[in-house]
Amino acid sequence: MRIFFVAFIISAAITAHADALEDLKAASVCYVAAMKAALALSDREDCTETVAKSDEYSAARVAYYKAARRALPALLETAKGQETSNGYGNELTEIVRGFGENRDEEVTEMVEAKLNRCPSSDQGDQARLAVEQAKEAGERFTKDFGQLEGA
Could you give the CA distance from residue 60 to residue 85 in angstroms, rounded to a whole number? Predict the structure, then answer.
């Protein structure tokens, strides 16, 4: 009976890791798409479009860091070579590398600059706050986990 229980726990842990990695993969795709959309904003866009793209970017960035936080145990196992049977690490790297590493700071600065050109409004103020909160989420993640081996 104990063997079945241990097998169940191991199976549940593997499934949880796979789910966390799958969630991170999906969040990565959304985050990269949101960064590309924000970068594609022209200076001629109206403020409504700028606010909408800024909100999408901020939500995607926060979701990405939340997913990364949940997936960290699985990512560390993958980095240490304990779980080499899946290609999640390579897939995640390619998703982000395909767009360009560390573009989030560039996108954040560009979005903030475009939002600052918009007249003050409730939606604009909320978008500015969302961008700031998204930036803080990334900074917290880096502070909490940036020094871990394999992170």
Answer: 28
